[in-house]
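Handout, section 3.2

Students often ask what a structure token actually looks like in practice. Rather than define it abstractly, here is a full record for non-specific serine/threonine protein kinase. The first block is the sequence as you would receive it.
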Amino acid sequence: METYQRSSPLTGAVLDGRYRVDSLIATGGMSAVYRGLDQRLDRPVALKIMDSRYAGDQDFLTRFQREARAVARLKDPGLVAVYDQGIDGQHPFLVMELVEGGTLRELLRERGPMPPHAVAAVLRPVLSGLAAAHSAGLVHRDIKPENVLISDDGEVKIADFGLVRAVAEAKITSTSVILGTAAYLSPEQVATGETDSRGDVYSVGILVYELLTGRTPFTGDTALAVAYQRMDRDVAPPSTVIDGVPRQFDDLVLCATSRDPADRFADAAEMAEELETIVRELALPQFRVPAPRNSALHNSANTSTVSQDAHDTTVHLDKPDPAGPVNRDTRVFSRDELPVDDGYDDEYRSTAGRFAGIELDEFYWARQRSRRVLFFWVVAVITLAALAAAGAWTLGTNLSNLL
């Protein structure tokens, strides 16, 4: 989604006689997200307003309503709560929990790759939320950093459940298209457009790789090369990209991103069990995931406050920052004309090699030092053994002369 947009014609409108549309947070190919207010309960909400072209598609509206109800029944701290859904004029909309903070994409842009214990802290709630959905027969289909929200209190939640499936079954969507975000699609999604819980597992595996290394695994000169590489090539171990990644995380990524769905974790619950085993084996410390400091949501709150102080019903957001993120949209694209997406944008690259204000080298120094100490001890033992053997041989060959 594109953030830091100018004001929208919907700003100031009241949906369904209840939900006031305040400042625009972000826009994408299918929808826009606004900060809003539930005037009946006097609580802030997030309003996801779909493009008007979906309003006339009864199949979409039926699926949209069904998916919203299914997600609203899910109860897990790792899921963004869905409060309501409806259609106002030409705009279907969702009313969701407003997570004050930012996205995982914004955090990666600010702080770069994460050490293993921070990755585990992100994965636990993500897998917990996915496991709750998978157990209810729901599949997300579009796991990516943009859809992982981090609150100012350190809570991590998944957003946008059900929307991809609703759009995929709409009449305006051709059966010859793939729906999703190219960098995170599973091989079966690229090949057939179909997926299940193991497709979500694959996307989480790509996410883990990106959290550890700061980039997604596949690059290419053409759109087709990027999209179809995952069908012919395995994801490389993260440790081949960045030093200090434990073997256990390499194995986690390789299992989750197997090209054959049967070789992956069956669902998020099984992957979560393996993560807990890794946390115990590596004795990873607890970690509170920090919210990004410069997020679209925070900026929308500031803009909304300024606008209200000026008694202006139109919210004017700042122009896009040229150095700001260009987030990946959920896209509908044909298999013959996939978007150019090498899985990694230059602006996401971390040149500082830091996370949470700490040099990444500090996280791996103890590991490297222990390896050096072990090496020197092995050399010393071998040297002493060689000297002892040489002395014994010399003594043995000269024993008769000594006697």
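Discussion prompt for tutorial groups: The longest strand covers residues 19-27. How would you have guessed this from the sequence alone?
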